[in-house]
């Protein structure tokens, strides 16, 4: 059947080419074109199925012969019926099962059974001023529609992350050639590190179970004639605590340090992601002791009840199923100036960082100021000169240190007794 399906388009191509040659040479093409909507048709067990066939020709005919053959699992061609013009002759065994109404060549199967699955061949012969024929094959499949799938979970109780595995099995009561597709939160699941699938994909294994596996799972069962999706289930996975935070009474995240004024009170709220929900306790840390002051998510701190100006309070979250515990804390300081209560506070690290940056910038500015002083630059230049130059300068100026000769000078002209002006240099002030 597969080889014929590939040969048919090729034969049709040669036939069309031959027809075009006839048109060019003779101006007439005596063609018979036989068409079917699809070479594979899917039927439902117990339902009728019609195999549609179309054909046309452009010659004068005297007889039209239609013949249907069936080839099942036995691979033996069985004649079903044959018609000449308006007369239909059916095989006695199949006359109540298959019908055809000439000149319409379509075949009606009244009620499909699994034994009707196979290849059907229709052949049409036309007799007239010439004899021509054509044939087509149609493959018929017979399936039972799937019923709504049901998911079974093993184990049915919850599983602790990293300590257990989960197996989900999708089953259908009825359905043939069923294809299974697993989905999480509406998205298809493919095999990965934590997900593995059975050969026919009816079983999904989560190994090992992790927090990321939490979600809504469903199974889609389908075949060529139907598709149905199961109800959504959410396997129980125990995990946490994760992301423990301390928030204000308004739900805003609190930093490591919280400052408020005398006479004020603040309510802290502790939360973490966990299943089942955590049990919480608040701990107060003193210099030499640690003790639980309350249980639950909330802690109220009033400034007048604080024995010191700064206190540390810690929230502890515990998951009884996973056996895991997490802890975080906040320093509460009574200050003279009220800081922003919007969750934005200057931490000790930020203060130290700011002071360090200020000192570094000040040092850089001081170095630059010293580097670019004119007097210092001149002194460094002179100090790099040889000692002989200093001695020479001393003999001329009379100063022991040549650096004393530097300053701002004014040139003045005075006439001498001969009437000739002479220039005299007068130092106004010392530059350095």
Alpha-beta classification? alpha+beta
Poorly predicted runs are: 1-30, 337-345
Report the radius of gyration as a whole number of Å.
Answer: 50 Å
Could you tell me the strand content as a percent range? 35-45%
Distance between the terminal alpha carbons, to the nearest Å?
Answer: 110 Å
Assign a percent range to the helix content. 10-25%
Keywords:
432 residues; alpha+beta; six-stranded mixed beta sheet; five-stranded mixed beta sheet; 4 helices; 30 strands; 16% helix; elongated; disordered N terminus
Give the helix/strand layout:
Layout: H1 2-26, E1 32-35, E2 40-44, E3 49-51, E4 54-57, E5 61-71, E6 77-84, E7 87-90, E8 98-99, E9 107-109, E10 118-128, E11 131-143, E12 150-154, E13 159-160, E14 166-171, E15 179-184, E16 187-188, E17 195-197, E18 203-206, E19 217-223, E20 226-229, E21 237-248, E22 257-260, E23 265-275, E24 279-285, E25 290-295, E26 298-302, E27 310-318, E28 325-334, H2 348-371, H3 374-383, H4 387-397, E29 408-415, E30 421-429
Parallel strand pairs: 2-11, 13-21, 22-28
Antiparallel strand pairs: 1-4, 3-9, 5-6, 5-10, 6-7, 8-9, 10-11, 12-14, 14-18, 15-16, 15-19, 17-18, 19-20, 21-23, 23-26, 24-25, 24-27, 27-28, 29-30
Description:
It is a single chain. With 432 residues, this protein is an alpha+beta fold. The chain is 16% helix and 44% strand. It contains four helices and 30 strands. A six-stranded mixed β-sheet has the order 2-11-10-5-6-7, covered by helices on one side. Strands 22-28-27-24-25 form a five-stranded mixed β-sheet, with no helix packed on it.
């Amino acid at each position: 059947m597969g080889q014929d399906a590939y040969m048919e388009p090729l034969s049709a191509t040669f036939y069309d080419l031959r027809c075009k040659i006839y048109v060019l040479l003779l101006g007439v093409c005596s063609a018979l074109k036989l068409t079917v909507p699809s070479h594979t048709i899917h039927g439902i067990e117990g339902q009728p199925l019609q195999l549609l066939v179309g054909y046309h020709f452009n010659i004068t005919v005297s007889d039209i012969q239609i013949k249907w053959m069936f080839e099942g699992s036995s691979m033996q061609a069985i004649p079903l019926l044959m018609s000449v013009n308006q007369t239909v002759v059916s095989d006695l065994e199949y006359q109540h099962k298959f019908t055809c109404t000439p000149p319409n060549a379509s075949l009606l199967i009244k009620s499909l059974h699994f034994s009707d699955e196979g290849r059907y061949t229709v052949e049409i012969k036309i007799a007239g001023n010439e004899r021509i024929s054509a044939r087509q094959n149609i493959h018929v499949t017979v399936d039972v529609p799937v019923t709504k799938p049901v998911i079974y979970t093993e184990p049915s109780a919850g599983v602790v992350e990293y300590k257990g595995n989960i197996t989900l099995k999708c089953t259908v009561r009825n359905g043939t050639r069923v294809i299974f597709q697993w989905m999480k939160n509406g998205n298809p699941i493919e095999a990965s590190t934590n997900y593995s699938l059975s050969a026919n994909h009816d079983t999904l294994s989560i190994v090992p179970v992790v927090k990321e596996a939490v979600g809504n799972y469903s199974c889609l069962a389908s075949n060529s004639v139907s598709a149905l999706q199961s109800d959504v289930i959410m396997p129980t996975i125990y995990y946490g605590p994760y992301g423990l935070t301390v928030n204000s009474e308004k739900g805003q995240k609190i930093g490591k340090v919280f400052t408020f004024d005398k006479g004020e009170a603040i309510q802290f709220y502790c939360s973490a992601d966990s299943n089942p929900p955590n049990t919480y306790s608040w701990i107060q840390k003193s210099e030499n002791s640690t003790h639980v002051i309350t249980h639950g998510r909330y802690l109220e701190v009033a400034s007048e009840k604080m024995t010191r100006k700064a206190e540390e309070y810690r929230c502890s979250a515990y998951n009884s199923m996973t056996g895991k515990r997490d802890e975080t804390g906040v320093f509460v300081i009574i200050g003279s100036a009220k800081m922003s209560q919007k969750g934005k506070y200057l931490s000790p690290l930020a203060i130290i960082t700011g002071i360090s940056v200020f000192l570094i910038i000040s040092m850089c500015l001081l170095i630059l100021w010293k580097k670019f002083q004119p007097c210092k630059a001149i002194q460094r230049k002179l100090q790099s000169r040889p000692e002989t130059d200093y001695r020479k300068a001393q003999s001329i100026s009379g100063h022991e240190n040549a650096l004393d000769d530097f300053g701002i000078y004014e040139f003045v002209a005075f006439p001498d007794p001969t009437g000739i002006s002479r220039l005299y240099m007068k130092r106004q002030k010392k530059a350095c």
